[in-house]
Each structure stands twice: as structure tokens, then as C-alpha cells.
Amino acid sequence: MVANLVASAAFAVWMYLIMGRGGFWLAAERDDEGPAPLAWPAVTVIIPARDEAQSVGETIASLLRQDYPGPFSVILVDDQSTDGTAEVARHAAAAADRLTILSGAALPAGWTGKPWAIKQGIEHAQISEPTYLLLTDADIVYAPDALTRLVSQAQANGLVLNSLMVMLRCESFAERAFIPAFIFFFQMLYPFAWVKRHDRTTAAAAGGCMLVRRDALCAAGGIEDIRGALIDDCALARNLKTRGPIRLGLTERVRSIRAYAAVQDIRRMVARSAYAQLRYSPLLLAGTVAGMALTYLAPVLLALFSHGFSQTLGLLAWAIMAIAFQPVLRFYRLSPLWGPFLPVIALAYMAFTLDSAYQYARNRGGLWKGRIQSNVNGVR
Q1: Confidence of residue 121 (pLDDT cuts 50, 70, 90)
Q2: Are 190 and 234 in contact (CB under 8 A)?
Q3: How many CB atoms lie within 10 A of CB 284?
Q4: CA distance 88 to 73
Q5: What is the pLDDT, as a whole number, of residue 362?
Q6: pLDDT, the chain, mean
Q7: Distance of alpha carbon 315 from alpha carbon 301, whole angstroms
Q8: Which domains does the chain carry?
Q9: Contact 14, 295 (CB under 8 A)
């Protein structure tokens, strides 16, 4: 009887996810190009960078190769790096006059590192009053037409935020095992089709690539309004959606070159912000773990160790999740055979989430580049 109830619940979850969750699993929202605007507005790119010497050169070079027809410039905020980040960026720019390098000020109380660096970049950008700000990271590489496509789509649809989930590096075993699942889970949490809908409150962005209308950002309280946010991209999206249309899509034209060579690298990436996503709530943590166990683990256990009705439903739920995972696997050009292993991958993500709560309890939450950033406002 208990097995039948669990099997029915797990099967019902997957039927809802497939049919009622905005088609997230189809990975259909992409970086389509809009019609060329009558005039190309000014864009300023802002890159916060802390100890990014390994990747910042490629980022700067790719941005300076953009074929954007309008005026644009690049501001790098060197957030007190110790590895020569500014020198690498300056060398990559060569004689280009479109790059400005700012030396970041010390991090004040109540701010997390990335919003603070972005704020300094925005203050400098105000001098030229650009229409758009492209907020990006120092490990992101752009195809030459990427900025043109971002702006044309934003102009055509009146977007105050046009964000792209950049294509993450997927080469090592750890990356192949965990990166597509990360994208799958993110889309499940924030269905991209719902993000752009006016009648939905769902709001999300991907911090690696966010084209923002400067006037809308100011009207939404600016970066100051999210100064303590660890998951700053989604916090910014929530603010901006009150000011106009936003959009989030997948892309192959913008990619991250940050490597996650080992499973421990993935664990640190997830653990840095997972508990913040749960608002540092033990109750939400317990509910999340229980929900993931029902959704991902129960079907496998029922399929392997139960019998009759519960085994059948377990097999069906397992098959549905493996099929639902296929579009993301195709996007990353990986074998469909990864599909049946999604429950094992989900189990690892459950462990990463629990580790995030453990690190927070040790006062080491949100650790990034030597900074402990979780819950900077000290609210327990």
C-alpha cells in the first residue's frame, strides 16, 4: 500500500513536470535574432573581475571583436585581484581605446562582491549615459555577432532585461556528468517560457550575460537594491520584471571557459549558493531533500525492488525523466545514455545542497575567491 502511494505520487510529479511546468524540459527558448533597429543604441559592457587572469584575456578579446554597429565600450572593474588580472586585460586590449580598467574599492559592509564591483562600473558608465548595460563575467567568451543579436532582440521586444544562459564548459567527466543536469534543474526551477510572460511572476536571469536597460535599472532601485544578494542575477530579474518585459534563453554564441575539472569543483560551485536559494531555511532544506528523493530516487528504487503496480509506475517515471533530460543532453552534444543516470546525478546534487547548509552553519557560506559572502546582512 505504501509503495503504491509513493509510486503514484512520483508518477504524478513527473506528469506535472512534463505537462504543466512551462515545457521547461524542451530547452526551446533560444537567442533568436530580432529585426535590426532603425538606430543602434549605445552599450557599455561591465565586467567585475577578481583573480581572473586565466580567462579575462579571452573575454576582453572576444568583446572587442564584436561587430556591433552602434557605439559600445567595455569597463573592467578589477576587484582587488592579486594575480595580475588588470595587466592581462590591458594586454588583450592592445591599443584599443574601448576598454577602461577601474581599480575596485574595498568591499563595504552589507555588500556581496559582485554587486559591489558592478556598482562601481555603472557609476563610471553613467558619464556616457548608454541605453544598455551588458553585465557579464570575466570567463565569458562572445561570438562576434552576439551583442548585435542581444540588442536587436531587446529593441524588437521592448525588453528591460535580455539574459542568456551561456553555454557552460562540458569537457571533463565531472562537467559531462553535472553541467547538463545543472541547466535542467535551473530550467525546472525557473521555466524560461514563464520568465518572459507578463501573467507569470517567475523571474530569473543568468549572471554571465545580462543586457539591461539603464533607465529601467535606475527605476528599479539600481544595484544598491540587491547589494546583499548572493544570487544577484535572479534578484535583479525580479526587480526588473516590475519595470517591463524580461527574457532568458539558451545560447551557443556565448560560452563560459571556466573549467570544472573535478567533482569537487562542481560541489563548490553549487554549495556556494544552494542554501541561499532556500533562504537559509532548515524547513525548506528538508522539504527540498524530501521532494528530490520522491522525484528522482523513489522511481528507481520502486523499479528495481518493488513489484506489480508500484514497479510499473516506478519504471514509467524513470523512463519519463530519462526522456525529459534528452533535449539538454542534445544541446550539449552528449550521449542519450546519460539520461537514465539522472537519478544518480540528482543524488549528488542533494549532497551538494546539504553541504551548502553545512558550510553556512560553519560560517563559511558563499565562499568565493577568499570571501565568505552568505547572509551578509547577518539575518538568521
Answers
A1: very high
A2: yes
A3: 14
A4: 18
A5: 86
A6: 94
A7: 9
A8: 2-24+265-361 (no CATH), 31-261 (3.90.550.10)
A9: yes
